[in-house]
């Protein structure tokens, strides 16, 4: 085997032609240099080439035609250059190919026929080029292990084929900023592993297919800047961990389905600049959004947008057979709503009194694992609706402000979890967790308990979770040196739990949402040792200072060598 590894140097000038004539060359890595000129034309003609990485140079010219002449090429990376011309058609028949990353060039022509049918293919990145033609329809079996399709910012046209639903393993589908037209096929609902879908900035028309609600693992959905029409399907609420939803700048009409407001995972929505009408839901996560999420819809009213004009709030509920509701019926509805308000207000007062009574020192016990300048009463004062920063099957997380000015995260375990803990065993286990001291592990400060409730008090992490940072709008600002640092710090925390604690502690729920970041973006492992109390409830929730949870999708057999280490896998997405 011959390896030529000269990456991350300051080499400049042309790549010598003799490199393409090396008879035993199998691996060529020249990334992050200042090479100019073209790629040697005979590269791959020796029939032994397996890996090529020429990314982050200033190369021009076209790609050599014989890169996969020997049928052994599995990785081709040349992103971040100035290459032009078409992608060699031979790559569409390269059965050994696993990863192809040619983004950020000036490549034109169409996507090679057969590329998306290669059975070993796991990653396709062709973004930021000048590619034309259609999204290739899959004639034979689709690539079963293909996890990422990135065709963003090209000049692709035509309708998306129904065969797009055949990519059973795809997790990222990025088709934004092209000229795709026609309807969004209902077969997209078959993408059961899909976690991020961006189809914005196209000319897709027709309605939003209700089948998209079957994508249960979707956390990010952007269909903005298209020509979509019709009503928003209530089936969207079936995506229980959806975090980001953008339907702006389309031609959607009707009301916003009230069921969407019950989606506790939503942290960002945008319905602006459509033809939506009716009352904006004011409950659930919608109480955290502002007017920018709804502007440009003249017939929308309610929270943030002002009172509804006569007839608008009832637009979706008019009795067309009798010309609208009678004044008597409207009066009864108003009186009914007033009565409900009184009942809810009374219930809230009784609940507040009950909570105050429960805070009596004789009922609550504070177990502290270090010197604390607050009491259980201070912790209980933070259990207010406006302080909720996370909610799930395992319980609810509140942000608490203590009298000394410090902030804490208070996790109130749900009834099912409390019922499975059997006070004595739970208390003993929490005592063990409270004694853990490590720089990269979230510190459990103490817990408050009575006969019915357990409140875990943790140090507060102002930058939330790694999952939110990676998958939210701020992900692009998380530089690679910071990602590397976070991965190392998280590994140190896990290493301490697994090897240095007495007794040893298995985390059992490692994922990017359980890696929290302090004010300096230093990593801290969270929710360690709690999995045993949650396993009977079917809940696996994050205690972080955000609403929503990004589940980790385990790689297919023979895939990512990191196995179940979710943080390492997530941090490495998009890396070489």
From TrEMBL:
Keywords: ATP-binding, Glycoprotein, Kinase, Leucine-rich repeat, Membrane, Nucleotide-binding, Receptor, Repeat, Serine/threonine-protein kinase, Signal, Transferase, Transmembrane, Transmembrane helix. Pfam families: LRR_1, LRR_8, Pkinase. It is found in: Membrane. The chain crosses the membrane at residues 331-350. Its main location: membrane. Its EC number is 2.7.11.1. It is a single-pass membrane protein. One of its GO terms (cellular component) is membrane. GO terms for molecular function: ATP binding; protein serine/threonine kinase activity; receptor serine/threonine kinase binding. This is non-specific serine/threonine protein kinase. It comes from Triticum turgidum subsp. durum.
